[in-house]
Amino acid sequence: MALILAIESSCDETAVAIIKDGELLSNIVSTQIDVHRKYGGVMPEIASRLHAENISIVLKEAIDTANIKLEDVDAFAVTRGPGLIGALHVGLQAAKTLAMLYKKPLIPVHHLCGHIYANEFIEELRFPLLAVVVSGGNSELVLMKDHLQFEVIGETRDDAIGECYDKVARVLGLPYPGGIPIDKLAKEGEHTYDLPTPLKGEKTYDLSYSGLKTNVINLVHNLEQKGLKVNVPDMCRSFQDVAVGMVIDRTIKAVQEYDIKQVVLAGGVSANSYLRAQMQKEMAKLYVHLNIPPMWCCTDNAAMIAKVAERLYEIKLFAPLDLGADPNWSIEDFKSF
């Protein structure tokens, strides 16, 4: 094992973590949510600028908390993608500079690998495993037959589930990020609005949220034009039932087809209480072990990047210093850069 410093800057969190022999020495996160909330979503240019302002501050706090010296670090890890190109670039340049300055290896880490391996802070992964990756930018079902073996068996054909939550929240007049208020209000409502289930009846593990989002927006606008008010809790409940229901349905089918031993939730939407409850209920019926990450692991952080980096360090997966960011990097190609 080694002393690894990891940097994460794929979206609106600037984070640095330090790990040694599996022990997390520090995990510092600076979030930009309050800034982007004013705009109802992440503004890429502003995010990049804030990363540039925050990276040195977060880096120093992580070093001080871990009580280590940069010259003692064995490798520098960084999120290479996917994410916002400008945001990724800030973290990557910082990691490359450190690797060059201290003449240590540079480890490129796939952001979604990080979300999956964050579950190892709770317990060991068991294979064959199904990772249900749901966030603001991603919705994927990933089959793993062993460590660092990723096969995407289903993914969104358009919008990600978290992005859909944000846009539905905006039309309902709810704050950003939309997942929290929708999840809360859904508990107070009833499923009274008839919303379509995209790809219903198709034999696929893919997901689609664009049609659901558009249907909610059109329904709200039509009611407003007629002078009618939307019952927001009922709309939240109706929307969440369909949005989460698609994930649950495909998870059940994949578990049965691939003889899955463990299902892990990963990504920001894994914090959703309804998704957690429904997943627990359905996996218990199938006698499949479910790993739900703690809340601190759901949002973007560098600890999850450090956890993957430990395994990549063991197999010496190092990158040259001319490495570039890849906002569309596929998890299946995590060794290709």
Spatial strand arrangement across the major sheet: 3-2-1-4-5
CATH architecture of the largest domain: 2-Layer Sandwich
Which range best describes the helical content: under 10%, 10-25%, 25-40%, 40-55%, 55-70% or over 70%?
A: 40-55%
CATH superfamily of the largest domain: ATPase, nucleotide binding domain
Rg result = 20 Å
Shape, per Cα inertia axes:
globular
**What do the pLDDT scores average to?**
96
User: What structural category characterises the helix and strand content?
Assistant: alpha/beta
CATH top-level class of the largest domain: Alpha Beta
- In percent terms, what proportion of residues is strand? 15-25%
Q: Can you tell me the number of structural domains?
A: 2
How far apart lie the N and C ends? 24 Å
Please report the total strand number as a whole number: 10
Counting DSSP H or I runs of 4 or more residues, the number of helices is 11
The CATH topology of the largest domain is Nucleotidyltransferase, domain 5
Sheet of most strands: 5 strands, mixed
Order of helical and strand elements: EEEHHEHEHEEEHHHHEHEHH
Low-confidence stretches are none
Summarize this, please?
This protein has 337 residues and is an alpha/beta fold. Helices cover 43% and strands 18% of the residues. The two termini are 24 Å apart.
Write structural notes for this entry.
The strands form 2 sheets. Strands 3-2-1-4-5 form a 5-stranded mixed beta sheet, with helices on both faces. Strands 8-7-6-9-10 form a 5-stranded mixed beta sheet. Helices cover 43% and strands 18% of the residues. It is of the alpha/beta class and 337 residues long. It has 2 domains: 3-116 and 298-333, Nucleotidyltransferase, domain 5; 124-292, Nucleotidyltransferase, domain 5. A hairpin with a 4-residue loop joins strand 6 (129-134) and strand 7. The two termini are 24 Å apart.
